[in-house]
Amino acid sequence: MSEEDGIFEAREPGNQVAVEAQELFEVMRTAAGRAVLWRLLEAGGLNNQTYVGENPLRGAFLSGKRDVVLQLWRQMRTVDLGLVRLMEDEGIARELARKGGQ
User: Fold this and answer.
1) pLDDT value of position 30
2) Which pairs from 85-90 meet CB under 8 Å and 24+ separation?
3) How crowded is the C-beta side of 7, counted as CA atoms within 13 Å?
4) Which of 19, 38, 77, 95 has CA 20 to 30 A from 27's CA?
5) Could you state, in order of their start, the residue ranges of all structural domains in the chain?
């Protein structure tokens, strides 16, 4: 799709960061949005090491995945640290509930 198709809003060049921050905030402010973001962060290896010993290609792959979620993590922390902490608490609570303890 292109701007000629009327799909994209006209945005001022210097405002893109603010627009993206607002969009991320809108996702983070809902419980469902925080749950999805938490799963993405976990799937990307936010809290995992990427060193895998004798397999440098696997390590490079894991490092690339983790780099993407680290960028998202940093942006989320900039947008609203309180919601990030709430998301962490909710994610930990879901994990504990899955394991049968609270």
Assistant:
1) 97
2) 86/34, 87/28, 87/34, 87/37, 87/38, 88/38, 90/31, 90/34, 90/35, 90/38
3) 4
4) 95
5) 16-99
